[in-house]
Amino acid sequence: MIMAGENKTGIAYVLKVYPRFSQTFVMNEILAHEESGLPLDIFSMRLSDDTRFHEALARVKAPLHHVLKPRGKIEDFLAMLRKTSKRFPDLMKVINENPEVAACDMQQAMTLACDIQNRGIAHLHAHFGTIATTVARLAARMAGISYSFTAHAKDIFHESVDRERLREKLEDAAAVVTVSDYNLAWLKRNYGTAADQVVRIDNGLDLERFEYSDPGEREPLVLGVGRLVEKKGFEHLIQACAGLVKKVPEARCEIIGGGVLEASLREQISRLGLESHVHLLGPQPQCEVRRIMRRASVIAAPCVLASDGDRDGLPTVLLEAMAMGTPFVSTDVTGIPEILDDEATGLAVPQHDPAALEEACKRLLMDAGLRTRLAQKAHEVVEQRFDIRKNSVQLRALFKRILRENGF
């Protein structure tokens, strides 16, 4: 067993659920680190019930460890507390300073602290500033190591976010990353000096897996990809299709993804008489998403600010479309304007505006030259800013600095 202070040099990712089909950016990041020669461990706090894994998952070499919620009795918790306190002198201090943390989360943190000490882990990095970062923060403090995290969207914007807890994480993390300038400005505006160390590092793609093709000759297909939840705005896409098919009778729309709004979206399709034009395909493997995207003339992402404050950060599907040459229509939600230069890299429409969305989709379906012009410029942007091999270098530099500052 490696005890505190002994030759700890490893880095581990802490995630609520791994693997998770909707979080391709995490897998991209891990694969890029491994390609560079950086070994990792992965700790998942929940068992994944997602069977729709990406084909690239098989390339991940990092060992996966589960730190699951305890199901024992109070006697088991007390026994674990006594055992763990012998290893970590500051354990009771950490517990006393965090009275709001649920006992099961504290137990997970104790288990994680023991695991990372056994494996010689010197730094933890979590994705999303909610439960994964809570447990990583506590475990790091118990074990006397550093932690960092990446803040995305729901974890900073949703109405359920505990602002004081997030402030604590921003203040005592060794580093904080976020994925857009919008997020960065919002955190600084709302958290002041607590957000001084937040930096923007763009999510990235393995561009070799998203081959560009000219969209001049494409099917009259409008494609939506994402979870069937309010913030994706798919109800507005379906409404737009009601007018679109009257003007472009051969137009079709396919929506890939699953979620809580599936039943209401199917009812909307039926009510509008669009069963032969609009199809909900459910979740699909990444290879199938890419195949359909290569056929489509338009990616529609009519994102909105949801009623509970939730919103997209910067949808990965738009980066994938830019890489593959599929022109897109989207809105001004959070970081999207950082890639959407209206009439240059894509077409911008207002939130909650099916008529504008209909017109933008019609223009792209009818104008092959416009599709090609937008796609070429968008592809330049994604190559310049969103190559995961380049962007992951920034993360590794961050980890290296933290380890160096902590004497490793």
Task: Report what the structure shows.
The chain has 408 residues and is an alpha/beta fold. The protein folds into 2 domains: 10-204 and 387-405, 3-Layer(aba) Sandwich (Rossmann fold), CATH 3.40.50; 207-385, 3-Layer(aba) Sandwich (Rossmann fold), CATH 3.40.50. It has 15 helices and 13 strands. The protein has helices spanning 24-35, 74-87, 91-97, 103-118, 131-143, 154-157, 163-172, 181-191, 234-247, 262-271, 286-295, 316-324, 354-366, 368-385, 388-405; strands at residues 10-17, 40-46, 64-66, 121-127, 146-151, 175-178, 198-200, 221-225, 252-256, 278-282, 298-301, 328-330, 347-348. The protein has a 7-stranded parallel β-sheet, with helices on both faces. Helix 2 packs parallel to helix 4 (103-118). The longest helix is centred in the last third of the chain and has 18 residues, at 368-385. The chain is elongated.
Termini, distance in Å? 19 Å
**Assigned CATH class of the largest domain:** Alpha Beta
Q: Name the average pLDDT.
A: 93
Q: Estimate nothing, just give the exact number of structural domains.
A: 2
The helix content, as a percent range, equals: 40-55%
Beta content comes to 15-25%
Envelope shape? elongated
State the total count of DSSP E strands.
13
- Low-confidence parts: 1-7
By secondary-structure content and strand pairing, the structural class works out as alpha/beta
Q: So how many helices?
A: 15
* Multimerization state: single chain
Biggest sheet character: 7 strands, parallel
CATH domain fold name of the largest domain: Rossmann fold
CATH level-four homologous superfamily name of the largest domain: Glycogen Phosphorylase B
The main sheet orders its strands as: 3-2-1-4-5-6-7
SSE order, one letter for each helix or strand:
EHEEHHHEHEHHEHEEHEHEHEHEEHHH
* Gyration radius, in Å: 23 Å
